[in-house]
Structures
1.
Amino acid sequence: MSTLTLSNVSMGYVTKRETTLALDSISLSIEDGEFVSILGPSGCGKTTLLSLIGGLLSPISGQITLGDQEIKKSNAAIGYMLQQDYLFPWRTIEDNLMLGLKIRRTYSESTRRDALNWLQQLGLGDKKDLYPNQLSGGMRQRVALVRMLATNPSLMLLDEPFSALDYQTKLKLEDLVFHTLKSERKTAILVTHDIGEAIAMSDRVVLLSPRPGRIHRVFEIPKDMANILPFDARQHQHFNEQFQIIWKEMERLAAAT
Ligand SMILES: Nc1ncnc2c1ncn2[C@@H]1O[C@H](COP(=O)(O)OP(=O)(O)OP(=O)(O)O)[C@@H](O)[C@H]1O
């Protein structure tokens, strides 16, 4: 079991003139295999929170642990999928994937095979010799998903990975990512501005307050909605009701600031 635990985590950015408190006393526990989304107004610290969990930043106070290990620096057990795919345009898809493994120091004959298997499973087996600009945006994000899965992390950090895609591609990719992560029993944290996406993909939705981000409320998504594909969850009889609840709470938060 590798529960992710944040205990009283605060983070500030020091600039020449002042210190900006970005996150204040965040305490949260995420179980193995859980899918949690983070929602909140622009600038409330969502990306900062992911960077802390990924070990790219250190908190000014508090502690983050994955299982019994404190997260202090970037860690092979944690994978990223971002809004941009960050594929190198001069390398083929296969070379990009192999570079990803090498950068994370996980390259071996077996991880190479795994990466190519994932590429096949996600419908891109025939694209491995192409260059990124020969693929659509949705395909490139699928490659980014393969790159993340190939290092076999137990925790996946998703920072708005669908926001640059057209609506149809976004819905299809949400289903693919959800299905893949659930069947591999991965834990995932998704940062998004899209309330519908958060509801459709998650077991829980965490709403942060405006800066400095604090946990304002945590919404449990009913199991029968959380356990089905996001596209189907959007058609669920209680989806709109859930949407309204979170929407109204976000409006209340915005009005109070
Ligand atoms: N490197 C930095 N130096 C100084 N301040 C920063 C830095 N990075 C972020 N901040 C500030 O910290 C706060 C939180 O930023 P962060 O990017 O985590 O918010 P966010 O919720 O992800 O925003 P958005 O929804 O707009 O992407 C913001 O006020 C931002 O201006």
Note: Residues 32-58+71-77+158-257 form a domain with the Rossmann fold fold (CATH 3.40.50.300).
2.
Amino acid sequence: MAYSPASGSYSRFRKLLGYLRTHRTVTIAGIVTLLGVNLLGVYIPLIIRDGVDELQGDFNLDRLLALVPLVLVLASVMWVMRMTSRMLIFGVGRRVEFDLKQTIFEHLLTLDPAYFARNTIGDLINRSTSDVDNIRRLLGFAVLSLVNTFFAYGFTLPMMLLINVRLSLMAIAVYPLMLFMVMLFSDRLRVQQGDVQEALSHLSELVQEDLSGIGLIKIYAQEDNERRAFRVINDRLLQANLKLAKTRNMLFPLLEGLASVSLLVLLAFGAGSITLESTAPMPAGSLTVGSFIALILYAERMVFPTALLGFTLTAYQRGEVSIDRIETILLAETKIRDAADALVLDPAEVQGWLKADHLTLTYPGAATPALQEVSFQIAPGETVAIVGPIGSGKSTLANVLPRLLNVAPGQLFLEGIDVTRITLDSLRRVIAYVPQESFLFSTTIRENVRYGDPLRSQDEVQAAAQAAQIHLEILNFPQTYDTLVGERGITLSGGQRQRTALARALLMDAPILILDDALSSVDNQTATAILHNLSQGSQRKTVIFISHQLSAAAIADRILVMDQGRIIQAGSHQDLLAEGGLYRSLWDRQTLEAVVRS
Ligand SMILES: Nc1ncnc2c1ncn2[C@@H]1O[C@H](COP(=O)(O)OP(=O)(O)OP(=O)(O)O)[C@@H](O)[C@H]1O
């Protein structure tokens, strides 16, 4: 996913307000507290001004001693309020971070598998963490700083003008120049920030892919190549960061320097305007020592937020880039969703009757359909094997049944109902599906088996494991069903993983079971035994068994032979052997291979 500003600054600003909507009370409380801080910040210099002017006429220790505690109390109140405002506003940033992470994760769960084939996990993780972090900073630091700047300019500047217009204007004369600089650098900063985030995503992608495929890297002795590839991307990130740092390091000191110039201007021109005669009428344009001190204190209050404009801007722009990157995820929509009038299937009423009627499916961007005019009917309780050469469309067919792929209306029916008119949830509940890659979570065997329904009892888990022919092996694991598997536990063999995944599907006791080459790492004899058991008994399910293992497929009630997206043969093993054609040649080849191996 390349970074492309999906929206203008205005709509990004509206997005930000949208993030804040649920926390508006706390945000407003934070801003009101900040308002209090600024009002006190304006008031305290006035007390100091009056105090200094009074003392100048007639020095009085009692008066001085009364003034100090007052300023101290007010300054302490201001300090407490400042702390409170920071806690409130930074807290909002943290809450928005929480909301966003939750929203992104929940949204990702709604997207169909094709989305994850198009976008890398590393990039998605980066957007859900680093980009969300940038938005938190924007809503914490940048909001606090922007509001602070707004109040400082709104209150402090008028007070300065009231004290002395000429000196105040001279002090802030450099500010327009500063704003001009900020605007000048703003686009460059945003583009450079986008480059950094993108390079960061590429780095996460590479780490994620390499660590997942670490075995492959070692087998092919590609450590050096991967090291070089990492260096290239890491270097790209370094260059992007250095470029950004260069721009920031040019802008920030410039802003800080210019902001301090206002203090120098005041000192240079203000000192000459001070009049020490407190009794005589003040000459026009002159000011008392107290007013001069207040003016300096005010100017200082302005310097800080103005000098911070650069940081605020970066935080804001970083956040803007990240808003775009996060919105790209949130705007992605799945085409596979419930129709407005979708039916909820009652699992008890589903027998397992499937019908495809000229089912055709073309992957986005593909030149030819992966499924072409596929028609069949599968009766309740029937065991149907689907065989065919590599890439003939078998997995596509398996994915279409539970609507993991977007099937057009009027082509696929369950119990005579168009699957596009059934809610996804109820459709998927009646189809147990074991994919080619058997994924296990890093938890115990028991939790893996009862993933579809964590409340199932140990007896039920065991019965499913027995049907999947893995129970006896589980008993040999260190803690039997409590053994941890995956990253935090033992590593299962390919065949053990497949049979654990099968047990997980069997536990769901769904009327339809799809096995997509799900026993490829299990020996032929065991695979045949499993399939035989599944197709026997009174509680027969509709079983769709996709496999390259023809000896196991041979025991199915019916075999569908696929080639180039079409069903080109259908019948029992004996019928198909007698018929000749593709099935016969596949069978002969496998039989010959088995003879050669033995
Ligand atoms: N996500 C996808 N995007 C585009 N094309 C795809 C996608 N998945 C599969 N295909 C293409 O669709 C065709 C059918 O693939 P499919 O995986 O269904 O075949 P298969 O019979 O299951 O193969 P195998 O026996 O190797 O598992 C192939 O040409 C494949 O390249």
Note: The chain has a mean pLDDT of 85.
